[in-house]
Amino acid sequence: MKLATRMIHGGPTIDAATGALGVPIYQISTYRQTSAEQFGKYDYARGDNPTREALEELVANLEGGGRCLAFASGMAAISTTLLIFSPGDHLVVCDDVYGGAYRVLSTIFNRMGIASSFVDATDLAAIEAAIRPETKGLYLETPSNPLLKITDLRGAAAIAKRHKLITLVDNTFMTPYLQRPLELGCDIVLHSGTKFLNGHSDVVCGFAVTNDHELGKRIRYVQNAFGTGLGPQDAFLTLRGIKTLKVRMDQSQQNTQAIVAGLHGHPRVKAIHYPGLAEHPGHGIHAAQADGPGAVFSFELDSYATTKRLLENAHLAAFAVSLGGVESIISYPARMSHAAVPPEERLRKGISDTLVRLSVGLEDPQDLLADLLQAME
Asked: Is CATH 3.40.720.10 correct for 3-242?
C-alpha cells in the first residue's frame, strides 16, 4: 500500500468487539486477570493500552519501523530515548538542535555523566572529527529547528555505522509522509507528534520508532519504568489526525511555497531559510532524501521594530509556541523554542532577535501573505 492508504489502513481500523470503524478510547487503568499463572496481554495501563498500541502500530508502519513507542510529549520521547545511554557516554549533536533537546542535554544529561558535543552537522567532516572513543550516539535534526539546516542523512548514518554509533533523527518537521530516516540508514526516529502528525493543536504527544529489536526493548523498558507513555484520549485524537496527514501536508506545503515566493525580495525580509528555495545551501541534499520541502520556514527581518510589529499585528497567523496545526502559527525562536539556550549561544548558532519561524496552515495563502505584509508595515 502507498503511504496515503497506510495513513488510514496501516494500523488496527476495526474494533473487533463492535465493528466500530476505529479503535475506541480504552479509558481504563487496570485489567482483570483470569489466571494466577498466566496474565493476559494487558495488566496495567502505564505499560500497555489498546488505543495507544493501535497508534504505535500505525506510526511504525508509516516510518517503516518494526517498533514504535508513543509518549506523553515530544520531550518525553526524546528524554526517555536518551536514557538508553549511560554515564561516561558521549553524543555528537547537531548544532542547530531544538531548544528543549539542547536544554536536557546541556543541563540534565551532562549531570548524569552523558556528555554532548554540538557540531555543524551540515559538514560531515565536522561530525567525524567530533567522534571520540567514548562516543555512542549521533543526534540529528533535518531540517533543523529553526534555521532549516540540512544534514545528509545517508552520509551521517554511514559515518555512524563505521564508528558503531546509534543514529537518532528528529523527523518532526517532515513527518514520515515526506521523509523516512530509517530507510536512509538511521537507527531511531523521534517525533513531536503534537505537531503535524496530530495536526489540530489539541494534543501533546511524542514518538520513538526503530527497526532494531534490542533498541526497541531498551526504550520500552525505560518508558515503562518512568511512566512516560501516552494516554488513551490523546492517542485516539492522534489516530484521527494522522488520517488526514497527506492532504494537510500537501496543502500546507503548497501554501508555504506561495508565501515564501511572496516574501522573497521584500525590502524588510533580509533572508529566508527554506529548503524549497534553490539557493538554500542544503536544497540538493534535501531533495535527494525527502519528498518535499515541508510547511515550515524561518526568515530574518530588517530590525527588531519590524519583528515586533509582525508578531503583534498578524491576525491570521497566531503568535504562539508550536507548529504543524491546521492554523498558521508564527513563533519567535529567541523567546520561545530556544529560550533555554543562553543568548550568546543563540547568536553563535544564528538565532537572532530578528528571526521568526512560520508554520503555514490551511488558510488561503493570499490571505496569509496579505496579513503578514500589513503586519510588517
From this structure: no
